Amino acid sequence: MTEAAGPSDSGHLILMAGADLPDAPDLTALRHALECRGHRVLVAPDGEQALRQAGLAVPDLVLLDAAQRGPDGLDGFTACRAFKDDERLHKVPVLLMTEHPRADATRCLQSGAADHLARPLEPDAALARIDTLLSLHAARRRLDELEAALQHESALRRQIESYLQHAYEMLEERVAQRTEQLAHANAMLTAEISERARVEENLRRSEVRMRRLVEANIIAIYFWSVDGLVVEANDAFLRLLGYNQEDVKQGRVRWDTLTPPEYGEISERAWSELRTSGSFAPYEKEYLRKDGSRVPILVGGTVISKRQQSGVAFVLDLTERKQAEERIRYMADHDVLTGLPNRVLLQDRLQQALSHAARTHTLVALMFIDLDYFKHINDSLGHQVGDSLLRDVARRLLHCVREGDSVARLGGDEFVLALPLVGGGQDVALVAQKVLDALDAPFHCGDHELHVSGSIGISMYPDDGKDVATLMRTADTAMYYAKEKGRGNFQFFTQSLNRAAQRRHQLTIALRHALNRNEFVLYYQPQVDLESGAIFAAEALLRWKREGEAPVGCNEFITIAEETGLILPIGEWVLREACKQLRQWHESGFGGLTMAVNLSPRQFFQPNFEQMVRDALDDAGVPPNRLDLEITEGILMQRTEDNVATLKILSDMGIKLSIDDFGTGYSSLAYLQRFPVDALKIDRSFVSGIGQDSNDTALVAAIISMANSLRLKVLAEGVETNEQRCFLQSHGCPSGQGFYYSAPVSAEEFTEMLLRQSRRTIDA
Ligand SMILES: Nc1nc2c(ncn2[C@@H]2O[C@@H]3COP(=O)(O)O[C@H]4[C@@H](O)[C@H](n5cnc6c(=O)[nH]c(N)nc65)O[C@@H]4COP(=O)(O)O[C@H]3[C@H]2O)c(=O)[nH]1
């Protein structure tokens, strides 16, 4: 019988095979007994069937008849073995039933049976065995289950452990990460804290510096609030505007108290600039001091806090700059020494006077005033005395004119009066005389009582010039004429003066080119021993010969050369040319000859003058003691200390020094003694008066006597007659020069004279 069923819920599933049950009452009884005990019993015809059925539902116990064979011939032992070899069934206990328990016992064990029962079955013993096996199987199964559960649990534990391990590792990693992050964050925090501390320290220092900068600044600085209140100010600000800190604290200083009313618009502009751009460019204005006085300032400002609308302003005191500007403006058109208008302002005023005169058909007189002897006073008594004199002159001139007239100083000792003449020109001469009289009275400068006079040149608008430049030129020309006329007088400009001035002007232009064009030549006048008539020296005299023109006399152009400074290159040329000529004469056998050369003051005072003389001598190869430099008394009177030094150098070199035109100047014995002078040359104006003019005759005699007593050589100039020669000789003058002996002649003619003289000597 085959029955497919699962194991019973309450009892066990028992599979019985190998016995034809109806024919085996022991088996049937067992079956019933088992079923009665609640077990389910499945019956299979043989062991083979039993294997198949067990494959469908795994029993808890198999009962196999050992002898029973199936269709395939498999007996119970073999079937039992098959059960034991089946992976699913090998744990099911197999109970072999045998009719030969003793004989089959070993086989039963070998086939893997759990036990064997002897047939026919003893029910109770069988049941007992079966219960034992079932219990054993159940226990084994339970053990397996427990083992499985145990394995599961241990797998689970391992899983958990691995999970925990993993979790732990993750946690550790996380902790490490976090620790690192925290350390980093901590470091950052520390850095930030120290950075903040540094910034705060810097800020504090900057603030301290800023505060000191503001407090100690020489620029006035103040802080303002939006309503124009000065909330803080430095000392410079308070000093500048006369406030104190209390005024600021009490809110007494405001923009509107600082700003004069007329600056309202310009201040408003700056304020709007401040609002739009945050600052305003510095601009000039005035501020009101606390006492109401004004101060020129430069103010610039900037917003500090836009939100609070507050800012700072910088104020620069422009007082000194304004004063300097004012002074510069004043100096631009005033003479600093006298405070009189200078040339610029004079020209401006004169132009206005001319325009007015042109409209009203009136006259304007222009007077050029030159102080006579001023240069001498300035040079001999010093610039302080000279300046003081010029200031006094300016004051006196101002007293000579009326309102509307102008008194100006052009520089040096040149003053100018511009007189608009409403009532005609008849008063001009009166004003000029008034000026002369004013200048005539002595001046008291320091300890000195000074006497000066003036030379005045006058030109009239419109006759002598219709514009400023022409009037100035014509007045200047007239002034020169006044000087020539003997000083202390005034001269009106005339057309003949104009012609002379023009000629002078043309000469000046021509003179500039004369050196380059080789228009100069030297003439030589012999200086002779009055007793023997022997020539011992030649005086070099300059001549200007222009092609197609008459030779120009020295007196005319030497003055121009001095005025223009051309005398310096011309003078050097003369000295070098004269030295070269002397060298030629020396080489021609007139070795005792001396050369006299005239010096102008300008030459004498030029820097390195001595060196120039030394070079001229060296270059020509002439011994210094054969050079006689003729200087005027005027030179000696100027810059006395320098002169002594220069003359001493020249004298030490061996050069002879003569005072030319002696008698026309100061003729002071006192100064003569101070200078290393060798000789005096009596001016020809006195020599010409010998026998004609008792004064001149007496003067010549006195000069000779004086020179002799000072052990100075003396030479008479302009000896024209034998009478003069005799007088001079009889009064102790050993030498002379003049037409009586020879006029100045060319170098060739002079050579002829020397030759004639030496022939005479040889004949004698
Ligand atoms: N009536 C008259 N005159 C006589 C007689 N003997 C000579 N003379 C003139 O008197 C002047 C003498 O020269 P000075 O007194 O030095 O006066 C010179 C001198 O001061 C100056 N001078 C001439 N040459 C030079 C020069 O090379 N350099 C400088 N710095 N001045 C010079 O020009 C002045 C005039 O020179 P010159 O026209 O050459 O005039 C010369 C000469 O021609 C005479 O018997 N009767």
Structural commentary:
With 764 residues, this protein is α/β, with parallel strands linked by helices. It has four domains: 1-195, Response regulator (Rossmann fold), CATH 3.40.50.2300; 217-322, Beta-Lactamase, CATH 3.30.450.20; 334-493, 2-Layer Sandwich (Alpha-Beta Plaits), CATH 3.30.70; 521-763, Alpha-Beta Barrel (TIM Barrel), CATH 3.20.20.450. The chain has 27 helices and 25 strands. It has an eight-stranded mixed barrel, surrounded by five helices. A hairpin with a 4-residue loop joins strand 9 (294-305) and strand 10. Helix 12 runs antiparallel to helix 13. The radius of gyration is 73 Å and the shape is rod-shaped. Residues 1-9 have low confidence and may be disordered. The site of ligand C2E has 23 residues, from strand 19, helix 17, helix 18 and strand 22. Residues 206-277 form the PAS domain. Pfam families: EAL (PF00563), GGDEF (PF00990), PAS_9 (PF13426), Response_reg (PF00072).
Radius of gyration: 73 Å
Bound molecules: ligand C2E
Q: What's the end-to-end separation, in Å?
A: 209 Å
> Could you name the CATH topology of the largest domain?
TIM Barrel
Helix content range of the residues, please? 40-55%
**CATH class descriptor of the largest domain:** Alpha Beta
- Whole-number mean pLDDT: 89
Q: What is the makeup of the main sheet? A: 8 strands, mixed, barrel
Specify the CATH homologous superfamily of the largest domain. Answer: EAL domain
Structural class given helices, strands, pairing?
alpha/beta
Q: Count structural domains.
A: 4
Q: Write down how many β-strands occur, each being a DSSP E stretch of 2 or more residues.
A: 25
> Tell me, what's the shape?
rod-shaped
Strand residue percentage: 15-25%
Can you list the strand order of the major beta sheet? 18-19-20-21-22-23-24-25
Instruction: Pick out the low-confidence regions.
Output: 1-9
Number of helices: 27
CATH architecture of the largest domain: Alpha-Beta Barrel
